[in-house]
């Protein structure tokens, strides 16, 4: 990797605990759903609950070296398919659409059981080795933290669709914390590249609710996440519920069961510009 992009080294046990907990939560959420529930629209445009789970199955299958099935239509022509990754996702969604919800759940259980064994058996060297990730070349461990974020976000997509949103107790586990860790790494890109914050800007994200935290981005030549601003206060502050922060980052509709207030302090125009451009997920 380039000298300015060091390898992200993450604790294997911590990340896998978060990933497996999301898979377990999804299993519990999906178990016993009626076929009507499986056909309920999720919070993701164009996908019902079955489609979201089919996508997760497809990604984990890809990570096992299984090629995407041939689609029955030109999926690139679908309005919600925007890139090559979207094409692969849609191939799996189309492929599994004819199966019952219980069959899709069984596939989910099988593929995640296989993936658990593979991940648990990885050596530290394999875990830390540089590989492809959706965020560019980085450690396999970083890829798996991205998988925590992706799977957890899809759990919320399903919950919102089914009107069974996560409670504060549900959000206390490590999955939201790891997801916030992952999202935080892109806030420099969001503030600098997407929102084009001017030189000297200091943007503070104040996250409330479960796993509340502060994320600081300073624009000094380039925008980057910093531990502190070195004395001066923020020029713009964005205050939002931690779960809703992830929804904004993923370009998703906000969860109606949680506070939808997004408060701005300081340079409110800049803060609003950042929020409008927060969606960095492919």
From TrEMBL:
SUPFAM superfamilies: DinB/YfiT-like putative metalloenzymes (SSF109854). Residues 22-159 form the Mycothiol-dependent maleylpyruvate isomerase metal-binding domain. The lineage of its organism: Bacteria, Bacillati, Actinomycetota, Actinomycetes, Mycobacteriales. It comes from the Bacteria. InterPro entries: DinB/YfiT-like (IPR034660), Maleyloyr_isom (IPR017517), MDMPI_C-term_domain (IPR010872), MDMPI_metal-binding (IPR024344). This is Mycothiol-dependent maleylpyruvate isomerase metal-binding domain-containing protein. Residues 178-272 form the MDMPI C-terminal domain. One of its GO terms (molecular function) is metal ion binding.
């Amino acid at each position: 990797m380039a000298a300015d992009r060091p390898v992200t080294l993450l604790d294997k046990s911590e990340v896998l605990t978060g990933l497996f907990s999301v898979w377990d939560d999804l299993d519990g959420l999906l178990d016993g759903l009626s076929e009507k529930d499986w056909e309920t629209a999720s919070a993701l445009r164009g996908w019902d609950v079955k489609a979201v789970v089919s996508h997760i199955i497809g990604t984990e299958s890809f990570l096992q070296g299984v090629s995407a099935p041939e689609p029955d239509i030109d999926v690139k022509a679908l309005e919600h398919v925007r890139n090559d990754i979207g094409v692969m996702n849609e191939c799996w969604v189309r492929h599994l659409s004819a199966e019952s919800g219980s069959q899709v759940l069984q596939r989910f259980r099988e593929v995640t059981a296989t993936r658990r064994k593979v991940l648990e058996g990885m050596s530290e060297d394999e875990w830390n080795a540089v590989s492809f990730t959706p965020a560019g070349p980085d450690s396999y461990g970083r890829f798996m933290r991205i998988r925590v974020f992706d799977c957890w976000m899809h759990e919320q997509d399903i919950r919102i669709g089914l009107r069974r949103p996560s409670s504060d107790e549900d959000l206390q586990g490590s999955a939201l914390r790891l997801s916030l860790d992952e999202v935080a790494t892109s806030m420099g890109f969001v503030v600098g590249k997407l929102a084009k914050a001017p030189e000297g800007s200091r943007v503070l994200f104040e996250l409330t609710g479960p796993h509340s935290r502060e994320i600081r981005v300073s624009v000094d030549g380039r925008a980057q996440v910093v531990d502190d601003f070195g004395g001066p206060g923020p020029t713009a502050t964005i205050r939002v519920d931690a779960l809703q922060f992830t929804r904004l980052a993923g370009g998703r509709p906000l969860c109606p069961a949680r506070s939808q207030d997004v408060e701005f302090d300081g340079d409110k125009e800049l803060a609003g510009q950042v929020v409008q451009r927060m969606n960095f997920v492919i």
